[in-house]
Amino acid sequence: MEKNLLTAKQVQELLHVDRTTIYRMLKDGRLTGIKVGERWRFSEQEVDGLLSGASHLDDESLPISADALPLHCMQPVQDVFAEIAEVGAVTANVNGRPLTRISNSCDFCKLIMGSEDGRQACIESWRKLAQSGNQTPDFINCHAGLQYARARIEVGGELIAILVAGQFYVNSPEPEEETERLQALAKKYHIDLELLTRAAEQISVLDARKVPQISGWLERVAHTFEQISSERASLKYRLDQISVISNVKLDSA
Questions:
Q1: What does the pLDDT look like over 83-118, one tens digit per residue?
Q2: Which domain does 184 fall in, by range?
Q3: SS3 for 105?
Q4: How many domains are there within the chain?
């Protein structure tokens, strides 16, 4: 065996953990190793670092998921953004599932979302937005005919969620086309046509010149969410390390 490389058994003895824990630490990034033939070898220096509470891992190597999002902090920020921008907004995971409640939702979208089929159509639209390769927000028509766009929320280079904004018109729809669209939506999602028509009359018509401004705000809010999430993930990782080290010290006492 090379100098400064430890076997899995040696690491077990030093950290006072079982073999399963060693490989779990290897998988989630708390421990790194190299393969020599069919066996893992581990840096003595890194194991010493775990014992002393140090770590060479940076934030980009942290295991990240949507769980890293501090939704209780994000919701009020999202609410304020939606009110100032005069749009509806929601944060969704990469599968389009909403992680927050919808901020500043219009009555029209509430009726659509109140239908199970309509809600699933919205989720599918958000899923497609998450899968889009565009890095910047581009406003397009949603399945119900309103404008919306998304900004990516990435932590450690990985997409973990999207911030969606929309629920408005850029131009007032043509009356005849609007009537046909509302009739089709009411039938498809089993919504009372009169209620849907009244709600559609209240949809905001935003000046087209404001759309680029909203896109900029959308990206800035998403970037803020990225920073908060990255700091939270980093803190959680360090707390997990402290917990491992504490257990090691208790086991060895």
A1: 999 999 999 999 999 999 999 999 999 999 999 999
A2: 66-232
A3: coil
A4: 2
